[in-house]
Design a protein that fits this description.
The chain is of the alpha/beta class. It contains ten helices and six strands; from the N terminus they run H-H-H-H-H-H-H-H-E-E-E-H-H-E-E-E. Strand 2 and strand 3 form a beta hairpin. The model has no long low-confidence stretch (mean pLDDT 93).
Length: 256
């Protein structure tokens, strides 16, 4: 799975050795910072600042990092105006490099308050790995970073499947700290909730607890409807359904 994260989903990279694929992706990031971000709208931008922004996005992938955090990283010692960072991000979005996950705003039946910050995502986890100069071996030595990039990998795949279903992908978080990595909603109102974990009994238990709390304590089913599925996506193992109704599914078993 670490190898798949580093090689990415680019068709040209599939037959390549992972080292060669990472060289290819690294060259793309260099060219992106050097010229493409400026060429997209004709506005000259500092290549070094763009490169720092890409590293900051990679460090904060699958998190709700604030614009101030990204601005501080992008401007090196002095930081830069958040409006400048927002303009850089807009250019990267138009180049289909950045694709944040918006927050879901359902009807709640509790007094919890929703948080509206998007989750930072690059369009492919290999971009984050290349920006961090991390190969599979380094990722396996840093399971926290691997977990964030695995979530990015799953979000990429879920987005692709959503397109075939004309569905939208978002995430959930409220002021109590309850969060769910992905909410998939179809036009007819049907939805499923997905938590993403590398694996392990404790992590799966925690993910299932978040999903059932969302279903049982947070969402107003008379307004939103009950979820069609609650799913924990893992990196390995077999697919099965728990007694609480939560399905545990490896990423290799996902499909539209």
């Amino acid at each position: 799975m670490a190898d798949a994260i580093c090689r990415g989903g680019w068709p040209l990279c599939h037959p390549m050795h992972t080292d060669d694929a990472q060289d290819f992706i690294g060259d793309y990031l260099h060219e992106l910072a050097r010229s493409e971000v400026s060429a997209v709208d004709g506005v000259r931008r500092d290549p070094a600042a763009v490169a720092r922004l890409l590293v900051s996005l990679a460090r904060n992938v699958s998190t709700e990092a604030a614009m101030s955090t990204l601005s501080s990283d992008t401007g090196a010692e002095r930081g830069i105006d958040p409006r400048t960072t927002a303009a850089y991000l807009s250019a990267l979005q138009r180049l289909f490099v950045v694709e944040d996950v918006p927050a879901w705003s359902p009807q709640l039946r509790s007094r919890s308050r929703l948080r509206g910050a998007p989750k930072r995502q690059l369009v492919d986890p290999s971009l984050a790995a290349a920006a961090l100069d991390a190969d599979p071996g380094r990722l396996l030595g840093d399971l926290e970073t691997l977990g964030f990039l695995f979530e990015s990998l799953c979000v990429r795949d879920l987005r692709i499947y959503c397109q075939t279903l004309r569905a939208e992908l978002s995430h959930y978080r409220d002021n109590t700290g309850l969060e769910v990595d992905a909410i998939i909603r179809r036009r007819n109102g049907e939805w499923i909730a997905v938590e993403i974990k590398l694996g392990g009994r404790a992590a799966i238990e925690a993910a299932a607890a978040s999903l059932t709390k969302l279903r049982d304590d947070r969402i107003d089913p008379t307004k939103v409807g009950a979820p069609r599925r609650l799913v924990v996506v893992t990196a390995t193992g077999f697919a099965y359904e728990r007694t609480d109704g939560v399905a545990v599914v490896p990423i290799t078993a996902l499909g539209p």
